[in-house]
Design brief:
Ten copies of one chain form a homodecamer.
Chain A lengths: L11 E5 L6 E4 H4 L3 E6 L7 H11 L1 H6 L2 E7 L3 H10 L1 H4 L5 E3 L4 H5 L3 E2 L4 E2 L1 E6 L5 E7 L7 H16 L27
Parallel strand pairs in A: 3-4, 4-5
Antiparallel strand pairs in A: 1-2, 1-5, 3-8, 6-7, 8-9
Keywords (chains A, B, C, D, E, F, G, H, I, J): Antioxidant, Cytoplasm, Disulfide bond, Oxidoreductase, Peroxidase, Redox-active center
Pfam families (chains A, B, C, D, E, F, G, H, I, J): AhpC-TSA
Family (chains A, B, C, D, E, F, G, H, I, J): Belongs to the peroxiredoxin family. AhpC/Prx1 subfamily.
Chain lengths: 188, 188, 188, 188, 188, 188, 188, 188, 188, 188
């Protein structure tokens, strides 16, 4: 089965978040609101900070949309804290980071590069039922785009809240939507 | 292993393309240039035509970038032709459509909704070696965005052509890139 | 065991029928009256419309005999509707079509050409107990004959309603039948 | 895979034919010309003789079309001869009967009623390559129709001899045929 | 284990007996009296009628001894009746014939020539408990001898009715028997 | 497969024969002439000596017909010799006895009463090719009949030497035989 | 596990003992008193009678010690009786002989020469709990020694009756024994 | 198969022998002369020293007969040496002791008490071909007898050197032996 | 999983301790106080006594710390006693020795040199819950150091008794310890 | 088999060492000189820096003894560098650190706490043949002692260089050693 429409698998990870003591996060904690799992290869590396910064700049907006954000790499929570303490860009980020040194999350979402022990550059949007609704993955060296991610989350939230409506290509909030019906079959 | 970095699996499908007789396309035909596999659930339905039209409007630009586009659903090539003949929006599209009534492609890319016999809404960008470099998947009812797709293909092509360079988040053509090195570790 | 005398296997398919919204049909819905499953390779192709038209011309007669008719191919119900909307011959047909893009029915009746994902040209007559009583299959390119099909259904109904009677070769309604007995053994 | 298009499986059976000594028939002997395998439940019973007589009346015509006919039941060749010697209707038949007391043919064609040791009422038309092109099966008590069988054999022979042509529904020799092409897709 | 002393296995067969309608015979029906299962290769053949006639001439005597006789071949009950109707010798026989076209009895008694689908020439005597007491088998072409069979049945009945007595070689009714005892060990 | 027509299985046994030292007999030694394997339960018991004596009285006649005789029980060759030395009846016998304390022969011919370690009372006639042609088995307490055994051996030898001839029931040397042919089918 | 200390396995055998009718002996009958199982290859052979005679001369003494003796070979009880009747030495023996033509005992005690169907020359002493306490085995051609056997049985009985005492090498009744204790460790 | 007549299995053990450095002994070293494997439970215990002393007193005699002696327990060669150094009785022994702390020998000869890790009290005599000819085993607490062991070895050597002769029960060197022959069967 | 943190596996062994009778020790007896399992290759050898003596000199101190000591080799408890009786150094030792001739403990702690049947030179410290907290292993020929062992046991006891405190490298009793906290991450 | 004496398993890891670019280290690179693998749970944590600092202070001495040191945790080489850059204590260390985010080394040496994805606190000394000679493991919270480690490495080197010598307990360089011999068995 495709990953779209599947439910997230069980996990338990230790999180670091600025201004708090370490805490555990499980699949059950994630459910009940929207969530982004934002995988990147490793702390202290190159593209990752620009992507994390780009995402950090949209965090307030995402929080207003009811969306939590989790940064995930195969580093420990100790390493996440150390990076936060020593990097200016990372130090600004307010969302939690999960330590995946066990590789559980990377395997659950099928993004572990097994010969390296590092995760791919991959984003998953989870709805409040724990179901995966949006996936983005890019090769090493290609940064993601938080703007486009927010656009798609808005569309997915619109569809969830308006049963019987769908959002056409490149839809932006406020644009027209479609209501599928028998009469429209073969007519669009 | 994650799908990013994996090579496409063998397939053979009958294609419909406007102005030509039906023809076969295999995994070997795909290699040697960049390619987009653009999966959608079914001919004659709702979101699909707006996404296909959006993609069609970028087809000339993609052709200039050396990228071929394949529309794919579990319908036959007969059905693809009939849709092209009877829908104004679809009738304008110049790229080929593959008949996947055998479900081979939908299973190869792991996007078959097995209880329905239809594909998810999913995009895969393949490099000239047949390796998957970019993945996008969205839930039913959320249209994709061809502009963002083109942005990411440009970045992937830049990285392939400029070894030792990486593109930061939301990079657009002409923007600055980064050259990773030991000195940068922990410094970005 | 031969297929004659076997009971139809479970299935669930979405049906298109002119003048109605899409609806589900299952093996349980089929039971309780006589039914014809009329398989053909694909919508929008060549022999199929002539055979479907021939069968359509006998539909009123079959309805009077208490027989429902189901057209079946591996196309979706969307495709069936589109064909109905755009083909004059198909547009006249009043019986339902089942979307078998899942291949369940084609496999249940053992008529899937596995290397193509299309069904054979095959007819199955089911009695009100869900038991297969008559089978006809022909190679690609040879059309079936609705007149002969009706003749055989009448004979099967006659036998079901008149236990102890059998219909000789090429029997037509009103002709003489036979009553098997020990005395007739070796005497016909 | 469906039975249409499959090749007959190996067998060896002893045949009785009027005016000859017993002889062996194998799958290799069948190939090279068209053939009908005409299964029936048992010698000395009821519907069978009327069907066999009906078929016998078309034997000269079938011979002219290059078609051999084989009657098959699970009786021995001794029993076939005894029936021929003692029944007026059967005594007139000129085509060979195969003794299938081993059940090989009944199993090869999947028509053995396993709980009875008798074959179903089933007809298979084989082309000169040993490939099954037409199948007819009816429940106990419903006789077949040799006229319709001849019509379908003529159509199958026409299609084999005229590549690129197909015979529409209820086609009779001399009627119009169709030549499938891309232009006809969705136009019939 | 040897066949002597084993109990007959379950079966159900349709029987023909002169002057009656067809009826079922099972292993349970056989028990309660003595029985002979008299296997022969096929109806309408050569040695069989002489053996069956020889046995038929002892049928009254066997009936008086409380022994039922069953003729068995892999022919159907229809064929048995037809043979009875058309052969003078067979027509005189008053005991039942079992149709073993399912090969159940031939396999139960291990007398099926598997490459031919016919039974060996074999006789089994069953006591009222369903236990096999006497076996005779001969190759094709060698007829059995009903006189000797009756002699052995009388001896077996004598032994059953006179516990502690045994019948020496070639014993005839009325001859002397032996009573085994410790004293006789090594003394005969 | 039935035992009639099967070839004897490999064995090696030590034999005792009056007037000779012990010697080995194998399946290969048996071939090339006719042979009787005459199984009995145990040395020094009751019915066995009368049967062995009856057979011994026909030994000269059997030798003239080219038939060797082997007495077989699960006793050792030492025991066979001791019985011969101490029993008047057994002491007269000139044919060899095989020691089957290994149970090889009793299992090869499927006559071992497994819960007792003794053989059944069973006779097998083997032709010069090592093929079993005649079988007789009787329950404990019923003696065999050497006269009838000789009758059947004569018939089996006649059939072997006269291909195309068969011996009817209760045939005695010099009586009429039958020549099977197509014309006789259903006529006897 | 070694055989010493193991319990005898289930068996049932028919026994011959002078002056009695045949009777059954099982593993349960053996328990409750001491027993010797005295295996030898075959009745009527060479070393065996001298060993059996030697043992027989100690039988009264063994009976007084509460020890039963069982002679065992793969011969039948009939053969044992015949040997007793015809051999002077064997005729004097008063202990029972078991017929092991089933090989159960020979396999239970692991003394069957499988390629010959005969037992090894082996002695087992069983205590009243059915536990094996003493084993002696010798190759073909070497006779055992009943005196030594009696010596060891006395020692085993002494040990059983005097917990805490052990018998040193070559101990004879009345000689000194040892009482093991911590103080004796390393001191003898 | 019984242990008598079987060949010793491969092993390698470190040996201690008075007046020598430690050395390895394997199954190959054992072959070529007669050998005794003398198992006992443990160094420093109770019965063992009396048995070992008894055997030691026959060592010169055994050496003259060409027989090597090996003491075996699951102790190490270090322990064997320590026992020899500290025990007067053991210190006198001149034959080698094998360290079986690996349990290989105890398992090869099937004398390991698995729940204790100690060997049973067991003696095996091996001929120059490595074949086991004599076995003696006694329960805990019962000492063996070296005199009787020597008697049996003499008999086994006599039989090996004089083919066709056997030694009767309780045979002592110089006594009469037997030559088995057909004439003696049943006569001793 | 690493051995640190695992619970000891079940065992039962016979112990020798100076001044006591032999007694059993099991895994359950070990729990409830601290324990050292001190493995060494063999009694009566070279490095072992110096290590055992070194440990013996710390035994009073260890007893005060609530720690029991078990010497373990694959020798028997008889051998342990004999060594104690005959070696001055070993004779002074007051702690118990376990006989592991069954190899259970050596396998449980994964220190058996399987090709030799001897244990490695290895020390395991067990806490009162039966959990392994400290491991030391050295190659043949390198003696351990009881001082360092005591240092580590003190540290482990300190940590157990002071949750939230850890002992830095080379910590000695009375030195400073550390209390880990979020603030210290990356700061030491 | 115990870990002592086993050869290190294959691995490949990326190393960070102050003043160098990242480089690969494999099991082959390790061989040819002595090596320490020094496992610790995680970068940026508590006990680890004191242990690493303690080891660092002995690094020059170890280098002189020809011993390389590898720090190992499940962190990446990026994290190792970042720790070095930001911690004063760690920044002083001159030996290489291996990134074991793949868990290969932690599993090879059996020290992975599987439920945490972190390594135990464990030290392994490898000789120039890649064979493990010394192991030390302590529970969480108990620091190791570099002095004692150096002592044991000296002893292991001494033993390797002086075959036939062993180092007694708590041996320090220059102290007396032992030369094992037969004479010393049981004498120390």
């Amino acid at each position: 089965m495709g990953i779209i429409g599947s439910t997230i698998k069980p996990f338990s990870a230790t999180a670091f978040q600025a201004g708090q003591d370490f805490f555990q996060v499980t699949d059950e904690d994630v459910k009940g609101k929207w969530a982004i799992f934002f995988f990147y290869p490793a702390d202290f590396t190159f593209v990752c900070p620009t992507e994390l910064e780009d995402l950090g700049e949209h965090y307030d907006q995402l929080q207003k949309l009811g969306v939590e954000v989790y940064g995930v790499s195969t580093d420990t929570h100790f390493s996440h804290k150390a990076w936060h303490d020593t990097s200016e860009r990372i130090g600004k980020l307010k969302f939690p980071f999960l330590g995946d040194q066990l590789h559980t999350l990377s395997k659950n979402f099928d993004v572990l590069r097994e010969e390296m022990g590092l995760a791919d550059r991959a984003t998953f949007v989870i709805d409040p039922d724990g179901v995966i609704q949006i996936v983005e993955q890019t090769c090493e060296g290609v940064g993601r785009n938080a703007n486009e991610l927010v656009r798609k989350i808005r569309a997915a939230q619109y569809v969830r809240e308006n049963p019987g409506q769908v959002c056409p290509a490149a839809w932006e909030e406020g644009s027209e939507t479609l209501a599928p019906s028998l009469d429209l079959v073969g007519k669009i």
